[in-house]
Amino acid sequence: MAEQDALDVATRRTSRLAALAEQLGADKLDALLEHPQSDQLFAAIAGMDERALGRLLQPREAGRREPPPIEGDFLHLFDDLPEEVRAVRDRVREFMEARVAPIADEYWERAEFPHHLIPEFAPLGLIEAIYPDGDTHHAVMEGIITQEMARVDPSMATFLGVHAGLAYGSIFLCGSAEQKAEWLPRMRSWETIGAFGLTEPDVGSGVSGGLATTARRDGDAWVLDGQKKWIGNSTFGHVIVVWARDVEDGQVKGYLVRPDAPGVSVEKMEGKIAQRTLQNGLVTLDGVRVAERDRLQRADSFRDVGRVLAMTRVGVAWIAVGCALGAYEKALAYAQEREQFGKTLGSFQLIQMMLVQMLGDLVSMQGVALRVSQLQDAGTMREEHASLAKMFCSAKCRRVVALARELMGGNGILLEHGVARHFADAEAIYSYEGSNEINALIIGRALTGVGAFV
Ligand SMILES: Cc1cc2nc3c(=O)[nH]c(=O)nc-3n(C[C@H](O)[C@H](O)[C@H](O)COP(=O)(O)OP(=O)(O)OC[C@H]3O[C@@H](n4cnc5c(N)ncnc54)[C@H](O)[C@@H]3O)c2cc1C
């Protein structure tokens, strides 16, 4: 009886081995048997216990499954947005993927702006969506558009932020009805590109008290002298909103300066390691005459600059959100494809932890930015809300892009893998429009009632 059982087991084993050999195919079986290390391979498998065998087989099973789709809106925060916002979002995503993504690295590396794309912005109706009428600014719409642009190209989102946020917003908030009628339609159609000149070579964070560019009244004109540094779009834009101090009353006022006016010279800033596609200029104003009718009629002091910055600062938070979103999506896709030790990166616990940390940061950024934009639309946003959004999102963005870069190993520093550009660009986002420290001081002042700037 025992002999018969042993015979049955041996017969079953032989037919099972034959079936496996057939499944493997003759060529592969020969290659395996003739491999110089086949003895060691079989010995290693023979030495495995049940758990080790299970571990060997499990990832192979998992690896065969289709990875789940990449979901950038993990908490479905944007599902409840009005249909018109989601429609614009889809339009921008399509445009950015089709027209910008294929050329973004090349222009970034050459530190050039893709001017041929500017006419293509007009049909997207972006500025019309953000400012649906002469008195309304739609912050949530602006945020979603900005997120979509920065997801693919943070430089392009900053270009939009300077033109449609800082420059358009200055005229929108501080211009007279006549000035709005003269400038805004041409800026909406992208025929006139705007720049915003506040920062100077010797003063950035401390610009409210230290701004040194002067404006001297001379008859029905003003004479401007000074220098502005970092001015985005100034190398090719058509109007620069220059903030200068009136020598008479010491107050900061806004002037619409045409870059081709006598006395204006603009030098492109070279050697940037972040947002290289964005064109920053050093603007020199040497006795530049600006007509009184080109002085922003509803800006009387630095408080008005603050109104513009509060409106646009949330937009920078959204640039950070988009930059992090783009890097997270690329890193997750990479983790699903790249294999090491015979398994996808995404199947390692430590890599999954990186992805989850990125996702946690991303959804918290999306939540903060969306909430502050909603407060802005409701008219209840305070300056410290905007600062919190900018500070929080730009700091988290830095962490997300660093993790994404790390996850990709060496490939993380190569432009072609889609994270290196975002990694570098996050550094600019972290510092411009109120550095981390300056926004912390604004929030700290609101919390304690004590200004700690000096
Ligand atoms: C890519 C890019 C685009 C830009 N575009 C424009 C533009 O279009 N128009 C424009 O006007 N400007 C623009 N800027 C300028 C930008 O807004 C300034 O870089 C920013 O305000 C910081 O000023 P700063 O670089 O002179 O740094 P600084 O003011 O010199 O600060 C240096 C460091 O000191 C810290 N610091 C300063 N004061 C304090 C304090 N009281 N307590 C603690 N820490 C402090 C800062 O946080 C920072 O870390 C741009 C900058 C960049 C990088």
Description:
By secondary structure, the chain is α+β, with helices and mostly antiparallel strands. It folds into four domains: 2-64, no CATH class; 83-192, Butyryl-Coa Dehydrogenase, subunit A, domain 1; 196-294, Butyryl-CoA Dehydrogenase, subunit A, domain 2 (Beta Barrel); 305-448, Butyryl-CoA Dehydrogenase, subunit A, domain 3. The chain has helices spanning 2-24, 26-34, 38-46, 50-64, 83-110, 118-121, 126-130, 139-152, 154-174, 177-188, 207-210, 302-337, 349-378, 383-407, 420-431, 436-448; strands spanning 194-197, 214-218, 221-232, 239-246, 252-257, 264-268, 280-291, 339-340, 343-344. Strands 1, 2, 3, 4, 5, 6 and 7 form a seven-stranded mixed β-sheet that branches. It has a two-stranded antiparallel sheet with strand order 8-9. β8 and β9 form a beta hairpin. It starts with a helix and ends in a 6-residue tail after the last helix. The mean pLDDT is 93. Bound molecules: flavin-adenine dinucleotide. Residues 162, 196-199, 204-205, 230-232, 275, 278, 280, 428, 431-433, 435, 437-438, 453 line the site of flavin-adenine dinucleotide.
